[in-house]
């Protein structure tokens, strides 16, 4: 039921009393201020306020009287609600107490276990770190004792150094002073081991000592440098032979040697009989030049033979040495890194250099061009003697019927002189 405001109350302004920021003092001061200006009488305002208060009290009394039963039932409900709320409050307090007890039983042990677990993990890491440091120091001490042992202890020292490298790679020991101090010395030790292995390998190759070569290769394998060393060694042998081939047929070098030889003979060919206009020998000095050239070719064949012997020795030792775990031969490891057979690549390089230098020399000198054509049987005989000597150290024997790939490569290098020789021989036969 909607209650209407009495007609007399409609003249009373209740809105000013409903403002959230209503201040009695401010409102009273406003009435006094208006009274002082003559706009409003204080007595009238007080009378109006008293009337409004009486009216509101009467209205409240009417509302209570009208809704008496409803208010009683709501008051009774409030009492019941307070009882329920009190029960809930007691239950919440009991729950909070239980949660605290449960937290103490679970959270505290959990935090302790978490702390102990962290401590255990850190202790394990520290223990493992100390174990690796001790292992590193032990290996460093062993390496220090092995280094003065000479060639016999060199392979052991290389193996120890490889263990040290592996340990440093799998463990972060940087920042540990005792380790950092030792690491600085490792590079100088590594340099000494590599230099000693290089010397041992070179001495073993020169003396054909398989034990020395094998020990040196084992050192490079332990240091994970075997493939690089084999590539470097084969390149060194190929480049050295290339330089010797070039020197053997160099017309300037030949001219100089002919001059030096000609100064000491009594044939009358001063300075080796060299014509100054084109650097070719005079007719009388041609025999001297030819003799010097073929002596050089004979010496070159000896150098080529020595190079082949070394490469075959290297191949033989590599095929016998194996990885102790995988049983993979060192030769297979070297071949994989070189993308092909080591010996075949050496022969390819040798034949290519021989062909290039012989052709280049023949183009630059008419004397050399003619000497190799006229003396082709001699050149072929030198090569066959070279093949026969080299085949003793290889698995392939020289045969008249079946030629090895190496022989084919080398004969192809002099094929241009062979063709010219056959054409010249055929022309002579036709004239007869």
Automatic annotation (TrEMBL):
Keywords: Golgi apparatus, Membrane
Domain of life: Eukaryota
Protein's membrane topology: Peripheral membrane protein
InterPro entries in alphabetical order: Cog5 (IPR019465), COG5_helical (IPR048485), COG5_N (IPR049176)
Location in or out of the cell: Golgi apparatus membrane
Leader sequence segment: none
Domain Conserved oligomeric Golgi complex subunit 5 N-terminal: 16-143
GO biological process: intra-Golgi vesicle-mediated transport
GO cellular component: Golgi membrane; Golgi transport complex
Domain Conserved oligomeric Golgi complex subunit 5 helical: 173-387
Protein name listed in UniProt: Conserved oligomeric Golgi complex subunit 5
Species name: Mortierella polycephala
Gene encoding the protein: COG5
